[in-house]
Amino acid sequence: MSDNKMNNQNVDDASYNELHRPASEFETRSDYLENELKIMKPRRWGLNLPGRDFRFEWEDLVPAIAGTIGITVMYSAVMAAWAAGLTEKWPHVNLGADFAIQVMRVEMLIPALLFCVLSSGFINPRANLGGNHGPMIPLIGTIALAGAHPLALAILIGVFGLILSWLKGGSRLVNLTSSGVAGGLLVYLGFMGAKGQITSLFDWSAGLQAKHALDYSLSYVAFVILLINVVLYAFLAKIEKRWLAIPLCSITAIVIAFVLGAGLDLQFVTAPGLPNLNPVYWWGSTETGWQLGLPNFEHFIASLPFAILAVAMWSPDFLGHRIFQELNYPKGTDKVLMDVDDTMTTCSLRQIVGTAVGGGNITSSWGTYMIPAAIAKRPIPAGAILLGLLCIVVAILGYPMDVAVWRPVMSIALLVGVFLPLLEAGLQMVKDSVSSQAAGICIFAAFVANPVLAWALTMLLDNNGLIGDKERPKQLSFADRVVIPTLAFVICLAAMLAVGMIKGIPALI
Q: Which InterPro entries match (predicted)?
């Protein structure tokens, strides 16, 4: 056996702890972080321990902070939407602001401990954390008015997700998505997300005068915040410190807002405290908690199409996060990339457990954690543990939640931490005329319908050679070329027609 083969065998047999070298032995910090990614050997559904299997680095604080800001924002929107929809649907239900805050706290306590700290931190570091299903937020009002029950919806999503993960359906769909289709999907999501946050920031700035009865306008505050943060983001990209964008740009936004007189809009209203952690309080009667009681058969029927839609939308969501890791991690780091099927298992269990104890979140892969983590060249476990602990601290203290959902912080954090990186990653994937054709049609279809249906349609067309690489179908089996993409498209289309997600066509239920 040659020396090279023996060395490779020794490396393969050696543990992470044996292969670890201190940062002082590397020329740059980036080289050290890349080496850490290459030598890690996470145990799948086993016990991973700090020191033996991974280490904490101060870079892990970046995705932890970003994920905490992102999830606080998302949970706030989700719980407010549930409260408004259910109060309108059911005459006896009266869910106010205090309800939304308490449910947010439930979601940030128990699931953070079980599925951030324990699951993705110690048990399976290849499973990304279960975060929030952002595209489903605008549908929550419709879900409530359709007669769905949050607990029934959660059970159905969890069961469908577990079945799909058991069949390895998520990873197969990811593998069947070409770089052109994936690039187009990322470009669309990045562009639309950035546009939405910029618009929201300008609307907030323009409304300050009327909201606080001022004698002067503060409409220019949004422009100044965006302008300075664009320059700061460009500088961080130039010096290859883009992973610092979320904390630095968020702090910069706060400072600018206060200097320009917009600080009066930041109000601390969420006092320290703990929510009721008894599931019976939330689901046991029609007088406490959600005031809905336990779900019945009709609730499950009303929830069914929304559950199918939520799980159908998981694959493109997971795809974007996995690709973002691949683009930012060096070669030879396959062992630390998120496993799509394991992530689907984690999200499914988190969906059922989180809602059973009183939550109301609709779960998906945690993008506001994964994207900054990939930029910072950090694996999942250490940041997941820090994120879970941060969520618990924020939920108990209360006041940091008010800062996280303040418009300048929220918009800038999502812009520099999620949507701009998504846009950049999508553009990186469109490298030739073949991939640009698939990407262009995916973007066009997303504008016509929505990104999930666009992904399913362009995957079907691309895998059959009707767009993109004409040689691609020759490398695929009949099932991969026709059966699976067709089923994905039909299921997405049927679910969207049922709930009224196709523009111009009323809901069929």
A: DUF3360
- Name 297's Cβ contacts closer than 8 Å, sequence gap at least 6: none
Q: Tell me which DSSP letter residue 240 carries.
A: T
Q: What pLDDT does residue 471 have? A: 86
Whether the Cβ atoms of residue 65 and residue 360 lie closer than 8 Å to each other? no
- Report the alpha-carbon distance of residue 134 to residue 321 in Å, rounded: 14
The pair of structure tokens assigned to 70 is 């992102």
What integer pLDDT is reported at residue 160 of this predicted model?
A: 92
3-state SS string over 139-175?
HHHHHHHCCCCHHHHHHHHHHHHHHHHHCCHHHHHHH
Query: Measuring CA to CA, how many Å separate 248 from each of 51, 230, 477?
Result: 29, 12, 48
| Helices within 275-432 (DSSP H only) | 279-283, 297-312, 314-328, 340-356, 367-375, 380-397, 399-404, 407-414, 420-429
Whose tokens are 């969520």? That residue is 391
Residue 380's closest CA among 67, 103, 5?
A: 67
Torsional sign, CA 474, 476, 477, 480 = negative
Rounded distance between C-alpha atoms, residue 136 and residue 82, angstroms: 12
Higher-confidence residue of 368 and 10: namely 368
Domain segments of the chain: what residues? Answer: 58-499
Inform me whether the pLDDT recorded for 486 exceeds 90: yes
